[in-house]
Amino acid sequence: MYGWIGVYYGQMAQMVDTWAYHYESIQEYQLLKTNPVDFFSSLFHSNYEDGYSNFLASKNSWWNDLKANFLIKILAIFNLFSFGNYYINLIFYSFISLFGPIAVYRVMQDVFPTRRVAVLIAIFFVPSFIYWSSGIHKEGLIFLGFALIAYHLYFGFKEKRFPFYRIALIVFGFTLVLILRNFLILTLIPAMLAWILANKLKYRPILVYTVVYTLSLLIFFTAKYIHPEFNFPEAVAIKQGEFLSLGGRSAIMVNKIKPSAEGFLVNAPQAFTLSTIRPYPSDVRHLLSLAAAVEINFLLLLFIVFLFMRRNGSGFTPFLLFCLFFSFSVLMMIGYSVNILGAIVRYRSIVLPFLLVPMIAKIDWPRIGKLVFNGINNKNNV
Questions:
Q1: C-alpha angle with apex 86: 83 to 90, nearest 5 degrees?
Q2: Angle between helices 352-362 and 287-309 (to 10 degrees)
Q3: Span between the terminal Cα atoms of the chain, in Å
Q4: I need a surface site. Which of 107, 129, 147, 306 has the fewest CB within 10 A?
Q5: According to the model, what pLDDT value does residue 382 have?
Q6: DSSP string across 84-141
Q7: What residues are paired with 240 via a beta bridge?
Q8: 54-65 burial by CB neighbour count: b if 16+ within 10 A, else e?
Q9: What is the per-residue pLDDT across 326-361, written as a single tens digit (0 to 9) for each?
Q10: How confident is the model at residue 6 (pLDDT cuts 50, 70, 90)?
Q11: SS3 of 142, please?
């Protein structure tokens, strides 16, 4: 399905990349067979004058090239066994990336032991998440990185021990995110730090998270005074400008962000709306955008149900606060920097499970069932 859409609706669905990665992996496959040393070592070579700097840059940066080069190298290794067949590579890729949803399912199942069906549906039946994380693109491996971190931190805290293999897999998950979408570590580091401190301090988790994120925002806006390379607001503004210059059928007009605390505050409503509510029904241009609009509106309806029909119970644990703060910060970063609706749907898909599982699991479904059943009986009695 993923590759087929890339062939027949590539431009419309922004799926050209998946086949581009495949064709480039064929060339790398030939290099792997003839010169395996160059195959592996070339990943670490920088041809830019600035070497390995420009960490958050989208052009003339080894870091920016790394995400595509890394994925292409993986596909080239797959080609040793598939003989260059895209669809066989897809099976290999999906087998590896599937460990991400499974890991998150096991964590959420432990958090909500009596809500297994709700957890299962919220992870494995969200269309955009399943679609974007299962095909040959970066999302599946990025989510695997998130899942490894969440799984091993959660069960490490529960068991009160962190053996070497847990630490190694947490580092591996963090490295996957760093390689494939490095700017996401700006959202991942404070979320992990707050989770760790909340568990260690045994104090009110919401206060710990609030303090950590307040300090993180201060660092975000003031780090440029330590070193110009750490001008994070400017990097976000540049990335937004690059997306604005791309155009595209699903691109929408947005206000340009000013690289200052005031500029980010002014653009906050726009960023929130872009990443959490759109596409609107009026944004629909084709079948795929219709599917995205239907999905987000259905999820918003679920959120309204959650507000009025949630179960009484314990408050937010450090893990659930991690899900909330991390997902929200990712969504805001997307909203600040991206104006192409197709890209927004893809980028946000990999944080949806962290938001939807707690929400759906906390809805009082038996109560809703009783209300529906009573309503049907009253209607029949009339």
A1: 110
A2: 40
A3: 48
A4: 306
A5: 54
A6: T-HHHHHHHHHHHHTHHHHHHHHHHHHHSTT-HHHHHHHHHS-HHHHHHHHSSSSHHH
A7: none
A8: bbbbbeebbbbe
A9: 999 999 999 999 988 888 999 999 999 999 999 999
A10: low
A11: helix
- Asked whether the beta carbons of 169 and 55 are under 8 A apart, the reply is no
Q: What is the pTM of this model?
A: 0.91
Spell out the domain ranges in the chain. Answer: 98-374
Residues comprising the chain, all counted: 382
Average pLDDT, the chain: 88
CA 146/CA 353 separation, integer angstroms = 11
- Summarised one tens digit per residue, pLDDT across range 203-222 is 889 999 999 999 999 999 99
Question: Is the confidence at residue 303, as pLDDT, over 70?
Answer: yes
Residue 79, token pair as written in the block? 């080609």
* Beta-bridge partner residues of 363: 310
Give me the phi and psi of 251, to 5 degrees please. -75, 140
Residues 54 and 230: their CA atoms lie apart, in Å, by 10
Six-digit token string for 128: 């955009």
